Amino acid sequence: MPHPFPLILNPYDLDARGLVADVALLIGNPAITLLPAPLQGHDRASVNAAAASAPEFLRLIERWSWLQDLWRSGVLRPEFADQTPIDYVRDAEADVRADPRFEGLARIMRRGVFDTTHDYLRAICRDLSVGGAEPAVSVPVSVGLARMAQALDVPLVQEHARRASGSVVRQLETRSLRNRFSVSIPLPRDICPEEIVAFRLRAESQIAALMELIGSSEAPPDRDTIIVGGSARSRYH
Fold it and tell me: What does the domain layout of the chain look like in residue ranges?
């Protein structure tokens, strides 16, 4: 049975289908992310109603259809240890607004994004499609996931600062981290879910060794972050 090695993956990275998502899906057991869904629950009736009222949500479902097998197999999960990312995200949004240090940021963050299922799904699905241009959505998501990672003592997967595009905050975050070790994983371009599952089966012992290395290395308890870099041409991490 594979050794548990939970990782937290930002849904913006998952939607981009890039290096960060590849690494999290290949070695995470499981990879945990924020799954946009009705705030009242994931039951079929709520999902159908949300899809009917928010076309952006329906388009996201279609765009993420390639992930179905990964959800079903448990490789990718919307919760962990009875904790759901959306609770951390909503708390982060409230805290940013209440903290005087972030007054300038709060002024440009649109209110009401997380108040109702309709507004939340329209906002996050639209923002995922444009890579995080809306601070009212992307800031609480990033802060909330970082808090969840710290609370559960689970590594957060991020892109290397030299590769990160469009996010000054992420570049500053990654530049502040201390490098503990590096590892290379050769990957094909545009790896599909079937290849991800096959890779995980073939590389089970190597992944277990990697998890043991990460677990035994020295690290400040609140800075466990896996930084992904590499060449887009060769797809090495």
Answer: 7-228
